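Need a sequence for this fold. Nothing fancy.
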């Protein structure tokens, strides 16, 4: 690979977008550079599982012709993008990481894919995911496991693990994913990139089996906060088919982000108010990194909102949704689903209407307490993950800092506890352990405060430069 191509594959998407618009680089040149890098690096990573090189080249040629003809082009004009393999792509295989869908080719793009295409992004392929996106370690029987670019043999996280690994390795400048219990945040932390779980409804999901749910969201991943903001500007905005979609558009997310945080009121919760165990190596790294906020003009207190019942709410609503979505199929052919999905369905099937009702009452009180807490603080900081990237042979960590975990969700509580609050949560590179493993910092804002978490994450990113440390790849 030439140094010119390598440079194109590691530059921020915002810089590439400007080069494309100024015609200093063509969309075809950019796509070819990324396809070359995919050929070189993806066999060892297994981040991209479906590739359409010819389709991407044809789309790039069309994009170049449109720009040359003086046509209006979108904010993502010419930028290669890879889509999570749980998101339907018209005319391209979409498997959900399951042998049941090994040959499924949807007729149409779902909304998140269509919006990126409308903004000018060029579809390159699909990224690996756990079966039906269940779990935060990316492996399945169809394609195998995705490796962490920072250390082969370690997990890339999940469920958007293929997306985050592809970004970290420079296979694409933009990617997207989904998040119920951390699936945008966890892999961002493991791969030293940026992932945003937006406020529910900020990025409308359609089609969605449970359209009223606040649990599952879709959102952007990028190598920088500005790249995530650029992508969010194209993804955000109302859709009349989505009952929870927010009414305001995405234009505000494209505005310049600040580098100072003077007067910002920050709460730092290294264990979410005593609710989670955390690997001491993570606490050590983040304890040092959080001091940067004071240097940027913020006031930092150790403080956390009252998250009583947050985990119970998450577990009940997740299990109920799994049973509603997968229950009939799991009972018909249980051997077609991995054990963790069967377990979630079984738990959901045992719930009563009263159980779900009590969870929704607790959900409402939780939201009210969290909103009140944000009257006193502007953002909450916490670890994105409780553990460091672990060996790919493990399905999930069975203990955290010596504390046994009962199920495959236990080690993800740093993210799952935040999900039912309705808050936007951004994972940004938070530093590295002494032996070079990435650590993520979770920046959590009040509901609908997506712009705020981007501003805070950007200022931290610019001050520390952690995200500029690329993995040791060829």
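Here you go.
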């Amino acid at each position: 690979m030439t140094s010119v191509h390598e440079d194109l594959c590691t530059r921020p998407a915002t810089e590439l977008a400007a080069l494309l618009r100024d015609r200093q680089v063509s969309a075809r040149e950019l796509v070819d550079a990324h396809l070359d890098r995919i050929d070189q690096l993806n066999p060892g990573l297994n981040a991209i599982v479906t590739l359409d090189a010819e389709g991407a080249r044809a789309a790039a040629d069309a994009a170049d012709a449109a720009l040359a003809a003086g046509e209006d082009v979108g904010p993502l004009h010419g930028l290669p993008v890879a889509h999570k393999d749980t998101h339907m792509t018209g005319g391209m295989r979409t498997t959900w990481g399951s042998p049941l869908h090994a040959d499924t080719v949807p007729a149409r793009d779902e909304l998140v894919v269509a919006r990126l295409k409308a903004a000018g992004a060029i579809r390159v392929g699909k990224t690996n995911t756990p079966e039906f996106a269940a779990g935060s370690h990316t492996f399945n029987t169809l394609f195998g496991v995705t490796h962490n670019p920072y250390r082969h043999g370690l997990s890339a996280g999940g469920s958007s693990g293929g997306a985050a690994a592809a970004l970290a390795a420079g296979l694409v400048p933009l990617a997207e994913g989904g998040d119920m219990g951390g699936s945008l945040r966890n892999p961002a932390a493991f791969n030293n990139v940026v992932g945003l779980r937006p406020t529910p409804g900020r990025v409308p999901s359609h089609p969605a089996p449970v359209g009223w749910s606040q649990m599952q969201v879709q959102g952007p991943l990028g190598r920088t906060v500005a790249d995530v903001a650029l992508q969010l500007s194209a993804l955000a905005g109302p859709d009349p088919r989505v009952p929870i979609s927010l009414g305001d558009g995405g234009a505000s997310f494209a505005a310049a982000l600040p580098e100072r945080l003077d007067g910002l009121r920050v709460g730092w919760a290294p264990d979410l108010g005593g609710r989670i165990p955390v690997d001491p190596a993570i606490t050590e790294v983040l304890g040092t990194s959080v001091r940067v906020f004071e240097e940027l003009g913020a006031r930092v207190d150790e403080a956390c909102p009252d998250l009583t019942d947050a985990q119970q709410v998450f577990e009940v609503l997740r299990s109920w949704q799994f049973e509603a979505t997968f229950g009939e199929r799991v009972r018909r052919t249980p051997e077609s689903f991995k054990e963790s999905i069967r377990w979630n369905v079984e738990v959901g099937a045992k719930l009563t209407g009263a159980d779900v009702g009590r969870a929704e009452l607790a959900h409402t009180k939780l939201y009210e307490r969290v909103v009140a807490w944000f009257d006193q603080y502007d953002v909450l900081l916490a670890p994105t993950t409780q553990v460091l990237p672990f060996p790919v042979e493990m399905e999930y960590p069975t203990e955290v800092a010596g504390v046994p975990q009962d199920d495959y969700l236990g080690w993800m509580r740093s993210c799952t506890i935040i999900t039912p609050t309705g808050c936007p949560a951004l994972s940004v590179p938070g530093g590295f352990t002494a032996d070079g493993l990435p650590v993520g910092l979770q920046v959590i804002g009040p509901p609908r405060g997506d712009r705020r978490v981007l501003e805070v994450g950007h200022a931290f990113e610019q001050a520390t430069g952690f995200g500029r440390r690329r993995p040791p790849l060829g």
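For context: The first strand starts at residue 48 and ends at 51.
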